[in-house]
Each structure stands twice: as structure tokens, then as C-alpha cells.
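Page 42, continued from yesterday. The earlier attempt failed because a stray header line got pasted into the input along with the sequence. Redoing it now with the clean sequence only.
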Amino acid sequence: MSDKQTQAPKKREQWGSSLGFILATAGSAVGLGNIMKFPWMTGQYGGATFLVTYIIVMIVVGAFMLMADFLIGRNGKCSAIFAYRKIDSHFTWMGYLGVFSALLAEAYYAVFGGWMMYYIVMSFGPLAHMSDAGAVGEFFSAFISSPVGPLVGALIFHILTTLIVVGGIKDGIEKASKVLMPALFVILLILVVRALTLPNIGEGITYYLKPDFSKMSVGLVAAAVGQCFFSLNIGTTGMVNYGSYLPDSENIPASTVKVVIADFAAAFLAGLIIIPSAFAFGIDVGSGPSLLFVTMPSLFARLPLPWLWNLLFFVLLLFASLTSSVSILEIFVPNVMELSKGKLSRKKSAILGSTLCMLLGIPVSFSFGIWGDVRIFGQDIFSLYDNFICKIAYPLIALCTAVLIAWIWGKKN
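This time it went through. C-alpha cells are written below.
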């Protein structure tokens, strides 16, 4: 296929403002990786020791890799497939791998989003009064193992994501981010204040903020690198797409620093909410995702106005997952629009992407219930998707991006 045949359309949307770009990009980065995964990763890997290592990795590796994605996108003024091709056609496959991985990621993001919406509704019902973690665990298991309920939630989540993406860059993603991101940080700060006024949080604060470097290990460093990549969307090709909407006048290094600071701030505040709270009530801080869906509701039930804290916490999770979900679908949409040479509009491309993700999400949802015993390559279906994305696709794209920047693009420019 010739370059002429594959040339992307020249007309390109742009961000309405630098602030809009920063908020949208920070919204993409501030997702489940920050609010859900960072606190329990910190709990598993030594508290403050992991936190310090994570900060170093973000500064030394994360910021530069994120800046590289923005630069590739702005240079191409097109979607990731064409942006990589513009530098070297041998790296075009990275764009296609990014699109495929985005479909898998969006498929299970929507499943989790459906869980959060159910918890928001149930905050006004039985969930608010379940102080026993065992009872909350049974409540959680009964819902996620249902063949219908989680899929309804996922469908609603897909519709919300699609409506934002269909609106385009200025009127959809940028406008939504200007509302969702400030709201997210307001909720974070409210919950931080509440967490820091709980009794018996001293041990949790010490664990989170005072490093014990005897806990340092190769596994801890590897976990910090993986969390950094996951949190900043490095290797997803999504930041290449966001960079493609930047004007030439944008100061990319300055914007990158602001995005990294916002991303870290969200993760740090989430840890400051969850880790001291867990210590205050004798909850295992390294218990994984169940820390959010089982232990946190049981913790809130012991506080005054439990429905309010449940509501705020799961609205926070929903906002975080929605801003990231939008950026994931946006990986698919412009690539398809440009590959179709304009035959597919943004609306049709978004609906097509969401439909594919909904279909791919059905096996993921079933893997927590009726297909729980199904194994492919020794893994359940959710783990198969997640491990392919996080352990193969994203690290491979990130590694090849470094090669592309340093050895190929660097020599030409």
C-alpha cells in the first residue's frame, strides 16, 4: 500500500486551549490505575518505600516517555498508525497493536464501570448498612457473578463514553474533562479530610509517608515501573493521538510536567484516603481490588452518614474510569476514521468501537461468574486480556517508541 493511499486526512481538530489539553490528558492518565490500583500496590510493596520509588520512576522514565508520545503525535498531526508511519513505515504495526489493545482494555474498563454504577445506586440501599466485610463480599460476589446485571451496567457505561467521544475534541472530550477533573479532585480532597480525621490513623500515615528502604527489592522497582506506565498511559498509543491535536505553539515539556503532577497528585491523595483508613479499622492494605469493593464499603458503614461516603467514593471511581475510558475509545476512533479515508464519521466510528468493546466485554463479565472456570493458556478471560495488554503489548510499544525516538527519528532530526 503506497504512502499516497494511506495518507491521513489533512484537516485536524485541535484542543481549544492548553488547559483543556492538560485536563483531558490528566483525565486520561488519572483512571483506575491511580484511584484503584495505586493504593493497593503501595500497600503490597512496603508503603512509603514504593511511593518514593514510584516518584523517581515517574521523573526519570515516565515524564520523558509521555513527552515522546506527545511529540510523535504533534509531528504527525494524525492518528497513531499514520504518525508512526510518517517517521518510519517499519513501526506502523505499533499503531495497529495499540488499536487492538484499546478494544480489549475498553472491554473490561466498561465492566468495572458497570460495577461502580451499581455500587452508586446501592449506596442508598443495603450497602450503606453492611459493616461486616464478609456480608459485603457476598453482596459483591452475587452481583459480579450475575450474567445480566453487570452487562447492563457496562452498556450504560459504554453509552456515556460514546456520547462524550462523539462530541469531538473541543465539544466532547475537552468540555467533559473540564467538568469531571475538577469534580474528581474536589471529591478526593473531601475524602482526604474525612480520612485524616479518623481515630488511630497514626500507624497508617507512618506506613504511607516514612520509607523503610530495607523493603527495597527488584520486584518493588519492577512494580513501580509497571504502575507508572499503566498510570500515564505509556505504550497505549493514546497519548500519541492526544498529541496529534496539539498546535505547534504548545510547550510540550511544560504541559507534560503539569500532566505528570496532576496524575501523581490523584494517586497520592487516593493513597492518603485508603491506606490510613484501612489501618484505622485493621484492614489489610494489600488486599488488592477487593480493598475498594469490599473493605471500603464495610469501613464507611462504621462512619456517620455511610451512604454519603459510599456515594462520594464510587462517584470518584466512576469519574476516574470514565475519563480514562474516553481516551481509550479515542485510540480507536481517529485511526478508523483515517483508515476509512473519511467514509466513517466520528459518530459511526465511536459506535462501531463501543459495539466491538461491548461484545468483547461479555466474556470478561462472564469470567467473574458463569465462565469462572474457563481457562485459556491457564488464565481466566479477564487475566488473559489484562496480561496481554499490560505485560506484552504496552511494554513492547513503549520499548519500540524509545528505539524510534533515539535511533531513527533522532538521527533524522
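Notes: DSSP finds 17 helices and no strands in the chain.
Reminder to self: strip header lines before submitting.
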